[in-house]
Amino acid sequence: MKVIVEADGGSRGNPGPAGYGAVVRDKASGETLAERKGAIGVATNNVAEYQGLIAGLRAARELQAESVEVRMDSKLVVEQMSGRWKIKHPSMQPLAQEARELAEAFGRITYEWIPRERNKHADRLANEAMDGEKKPAAVKAEGEKQPHWSGATGDPTRLILLRHGQTALSVERRYSGRGDHELTALGLEQAEKAAARLSKVDGITAIISSPLKRAAQTAQKLADEIGTDVVTHQGLIETDFGTWEGLTFAEAAQQDPEVHRRWLGDTSVRPPNGESFDEVHNRIRKARAEIIAKYGGSTVVVVSHVTPIKTLLRQALDVGPQFLFRMHLDLTGVSIAEFYPDGHASVKLVNDTSHLS
Question: CB–CB of 341/155 below 8 Å?
Answer without folding.
Answer: yes
